[in-house]
Amino acid sequence: MTSKLNVVPFVSVDHMMKLVLSVGVERFLTELSAYVEEDFRRWESFDKVARVAAHSPDGVIELMPTSDGTAYGFKYVNGHPKNTRDGRQTVTAFGVLADVANGYPMLLTEMTLLTALRTAATSAVAAKHLARGDARTMAIIGNGAQAEFQALAMKALLGIDHLRLYDIDRWASEKCARNLDGFGFDVITCSGTEEAVDGTDVITTVTAAKQRAAILTDNLVGAGVHINAVGGDCPGKTELHADILRRAAIFVEYPPQTRIEGEIQQLAPDHLVTELWRVIAGEAEGRSSRQQITLFDSVGFATEDFSALRYVRDKIAGTPFFDELDLLADPDEPRDLFGMLLRAAA
Amino acid sequence: MTSKLNVVPFVSVDHMMKLVLSVGVERFLTELSAYVEEDFRRWESFDKVARVAAHSPDGVIELMPTSDGTAYGFKYVNGHPKNTRDGRQTVTAFGVLADVANGYPMLLTEMTLLTALRTAATSAVAAKHLARGDARTMAIIGNGAQAEFQALAMKALLGIDHLRLYDIDRWASEKCARNLDGFGFDVITCSGTEEAVDGTDVITTVTAAKQRAAILTDNLVGAGVHINAVGGDCPGKTELHADILRRAAIFVEYPPQTRIEGEIQQLAPDHLVTELWRVIAGEAEGRSSRQQITLFDSVGFATEDFSALRYVRDKIAGTPFFDELDLLADPDEPRDLFGMLLRAAA
């Protein structure tokens, strides 16, 4: 084949790690956040479709497509809680960005790592618009796979440099503290949620609790705090006591999805929430006072994956951090697909 | 990484061609047909979802998912008629097969070539059940990318060995005849549809006509013929005159889709059609007499792609015809995704 039209750039897990490291994690998160913010600002230009889910007794496989009319993206993502029993990940993901004008894929990439990065970037974009401007201290409740990314994104965008970590498994907090060593944080490992949230400006909840949990109870949340609720992200899985929700100004990505999957599944279906994109676009008020409790009820949305795909597509240009996949048949004459096959035999 | 859980087998276009050639095209089509037929027979075990389409002025991008509860498959496919202007294909496709029990992809493969093969295999499975048992002669109206695959599948399953080719562009017929040289056909290149269909047992229409065309008119269709209508496959695109449909016993894949996309979009929405799977499963009658005109109104359905993915997945085992893609992040400890990133720097 003389043409390269058959080729699709592919970013493997190894290449994604090398790309992130070569850019620098904090700069990667900062630049990615700018893409996420830009796409939230032009929210209305997106074709927003509900995710297409295939449920089974052990888990779910979802396709999350979206398009801005110029590019089309989708993410394949699974969720299988029992996977860790045989050494597999609970969640894995990959994604594709395509050109709407000709339908050709422009990028195939791993998205397990990239989803962690875009989730943290989205949390930081929301916090930038909702937390108090002088916020410097964050509690992270749940110190698993997301924790370090959340910390670094908040540092990059808000200047958060004091962390108070708590996890029911102390090993996880120690792992998190160790991994963040050298990134310029003042880290305190705590022995309970109450200790962790004491005096913090931002509270991030990102536990793996599988049921209606109340990781955070109302009495622990002081005035002026911004809550970044990341872990409640599917029906039946919540982290905050409902009383907190009733005191807070609630901001969400896409209400039809958040009302099913987010913390607000605990509230009446008509409880007032504000779409984050409206705050970013200047169409709605964010934080109204220093005393207000703000809550970003994050469940993850297809546009955030789209932003991440766009960013990676732009960022790999000129780098060695991708392979060229021979994914698309490209006969010299479209009507001679069979002839292409015959010539391959020669 | 010591584990191989991160790896997904990938079949490139080049490997697909080599796989098909190493198996032999006719044997590949025969074996693939058996998978297609098996999946039609257990039709009711499939989760059938409408395709998820993103339309734009220049074309469409679709995701076609389905699952049998054990495996999950989806195909990405675009359709952009103007693509040939700049040397691109009108249609390209790729697909993924995943394990429902853990959500992990088991196969990523090109599907442009594979779709041509599965479409021909499906046509042949239908004809095996609907054409007269002594059918030996087939007309192919439209001699583009699908023609040779249709011919070989019909030969493999029915013993069709006489072909009568017609295309409005004589080059296409000559290309098709040349490509089929050495495959044991008696081929006649015709100068019109009437000449092509004269005395044939099976008529395959597979043109690229973009509008309501009448490639085949009623007077040309004699008693006892089986019509394999492949080219009418989207709203506004049909190949057969409606009078033929009114004389024929009509068999379809998935009625809700065929009524929108197939030849029967020309008929009333309650016009009687029979689902092909019922004939294969022995629940409905196929051909009722030697005189009856049977019509398979084929538009392509997700289960056929699923069958093709299953077949390729089984067939590549032990061959060199795939690569191993590092698609899935596989940290030693699921909660230490960030640590995996840090260790990659070392």
Automatic annotation (TrEMBL), chains A, B:
It comes from the Bacteria. InterPro entries: NAD(P)-bd_dom_sf, ODC_Mu_crystall, ODC_N. SUPFAM superfamilies: NAD(P)-binding Rossmann-fold domains. Pfam families: OCD_Mu_crystall. PANTHER family: KETIMINE REDUCTASE MU-CRYSTALLIN. This is Ornithine cyclodeaminase.
